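pasting for ref
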Amino acid sequence: MTHKCITADNEMYLRCKTLLQQVQLDIDPNTRVGELGLGQQQLVEIAKALNKQVRLLILDEPSASLTEKETAILLTLVKDLKAHNIACIYISHKLNEVKEISDKICVIRDGEHIGTKDADTMSEDDIITMMVGREITSLYPHEPHEIKDEILRVENLSAWHPINTHIKRVNNVSFNLHSGEILGIAGLVGSGRTEMVQCLFGSYQGKYEGNIFIHQKQVQIKIVLKLLHIK
């Protein structure tokens, strides 16, 4: 009985290793999924689907938490699945990805089917027009504005993981913000954006360093309550 269990475990390990290699994950099959990054976890989910030998794979925003490198792996994988006669529905708002891998593109707006066309007959502008219901002349129109007084300046902000203190969560970030401006902070889950903002509010639990200026005056923010009194 013991021998059979060991054999079964070995077979499972090797099968898992093969599936992980198929999605280009170079990790030990014994690794706990919770120890992986979100992008790696996404690829593990795809490997699980492949293990079931599916004929139809539905992916809903699969690259939302992936890095550029992981996204490239994902798109290559989808193309390989197609070559092996596996059908795929790829749901995404990232039009460059949709254009790269699709044979047909279906546009849904407000719960209604707007149209389905061959991908090679549609440009990204065509897709956008179908998505919004009107022609968009400029996705990012230039809006001239006057640069006003500086409200906030951050210089060389770095922060370390509260437990694994050798891991840097924020690495030498600098930016400034002026009166009347809106500063958007973008990044994948786990990129350090939340930790950066926590440092600004003095609520980050780990070690952090850098210079913060409010109205040209350098401040030391260690607790949120102090920030509320800074004018």
